[in-house]
Amino acid sequence: CPLGGCPLVVPPQPAEEKAQLLQNSEYQERMVESTFLYLTLDLPTAPLYKDEKEQLIIPQVPLFSILAKFNGSTEKEYKTYKENFLKRFQLTRLPPYLIFCIKRFTKNNFFVEKNPTIVNFPITNVDLREYLSEEVQAAHAHTTYDLIANIVHDGKPSEGSYRIHVLHHGTGKWYELQDLQVTDILPQMITLSEAYIQIWKRREEDETNQQGA
């Protein structure tokens, strides 16, 4: 073996032993229903390598990839100082408004890190029906959402700034707000920002799309 020892190989457990372990209370699957104020969307770890021009590569991820956390089958591991466990999430009801919090910041004992990954998302027609169970889908006639506000964080975690993109419902135009400055912005430019918090409005059947995106 090389200096430092050999890796420990754990043989697979026999089916009988595995079935016996699943009978223990600590291995039992539990279902808990809880309310939420917002949905936290986890970003994949950003790569640390650079491209051929020695510039940091800014990764991109589709919105529906990070929404997969709530499809009822994707498992997420959680660790505490006592135990490790897996969780699966699924939506049981769709409210008139949804708030997404894109988890850009992670904090350890020394500093706060920011993930610069760009989330690619459409401005309109985000259908969340597939994130509901089949029996719950029947109770929801409207499952499509349109973006109405987008909060962006620019810069480093400790010294960054915020911008807000807001939809004017009466005209269907988007505006960017930063401090006291208000400017027009094209919907296509909103998707290029480091979105941090988003507010989505459920579309009702009699509503028309006025956003022009």
Folded structure, characterized:
With 213 residues, the protein is mainly beta. It has a domain at 34-147 and 189-202: Cathepsin B, Chain A. 9% of the residues lie in helices and 37% in strands. It has 4 helices and 14 strands. It has helices spanning 15-21, 63-67, 134-137, 187-190, and strands at residues 39-42, 60-62, 71-79, 84-90, 97-103, 105-107, 112-114, 118-120, 126-127, 144-154, 161-168, 173-178, 181-185, 195-202. The strands form 4 sheets. Strands 1, 5, 9, 10, 11, 12, 13 and 14 form an 8-stranded mixed sheet that branches. It has a two-stranded parallel sheet with strand order 2-8. The chain starts with 14 loop residues before the first helix and ends in an 11-residue tail after the last strand.
Brief summary of the model shown:
This protein is mainly β and 213 residues long. Strands 1, 5, 9, 10, 11, 12, 13 and 14 form an eight-stranded mixed β-sheet that branches. The protein has a two-stranded parallel ribbon with strand order 2-8. It has a two-stranded antiparallel sheet with strand order 3-4.
